[in-house]
Amino acid sequence: MGDEVLYEVTDGVARITLNRPERLNAFTLDGAKRMRECFETAANDRSVGVVVLTGTGDRAFCTGGDVGDFSDFTIDVDRAMNAELLRLSHEMRNAGKPIIARVNGYCIGAGNELNMQCDLTIAAEHASFGQTGPKMGSTPNWWVTQLLPRSVGEKRAREIVYLCNRYTAAEAETMGWVNKVVPGDQLDAAVDEWCRSLLEKSPTALRLAKMAINQGSDQLSGAVTQGMELITFFHDTPESREGMQAFVEKRKPDFRPDSRN
Hints:
By secondary structure, the chain is α/β, with parallel strands linked by helices. It has helices at 29-44, 75-94, 110-117, 144-152, 154-163, 169-175, 187-199, 203-218, 221-234, 238-249, and strands at 5-10, 13-18, 50-55, 60-62, 99-103, 106-108, 120-124, 128-130, 167-168, 180-182. Strand 2 (13-18), helix 1 and strand 3 form a beta-alpha-beta unit. It starts with a strand and ends in a 12-residue tail after the last helix. GO terms for molecular function: 1,4-dihydroxy-2-naphthoyl-CoA synthase activity.
């Protein structure tokens, strides 16, 4: 389980790395649990002032949950995953320490849901962003439908969530989706620069600032919990299962079989 997510602390910076490059760093239920444990460890470690979340390799930050592992999941398995994701988001939003998303490639689906819960995002020029929910019988109710409109505006958020298009890092930066975009070979230097800057700041002031900025969106936590429960029930329907199965089989889903002549 530990190999799926790597954790290390160096010079006050905790690095949490999704380590499944062969699956574009998509995470399993065990991976979600391990991420939550890592964020909890970082939160309780007084030597840690900043957390960096990233993925192994230069192809992907994270492409979401591993649908291949859940193609036959039951509503109980799905609820277990969503319950773990809620615990993970609680740790991320309440850790009291800045979290930087180091986006080194695809940031898609639940990968972008992770990104949205980080405080800051620095992306490589070759990175790409997007949601996949309606395309595969799901909805990004894990803080994206709640937070994305605050970053890019409601109309643009609807476009991103409804159409499931891909966006370049430069486009994402223009929208306010990410903070900074740099050439791939400068990504580590840019992240390290911001880490050093944050480590020079008052940790208590940063904790209070994070709490204060989160206060408004914290009011949406009930909507997130409800949304995750609703999506659990939706995932148990034939429509949603068709989307997930089509994704596994790499074909176009047929969501409206009754509309054929």
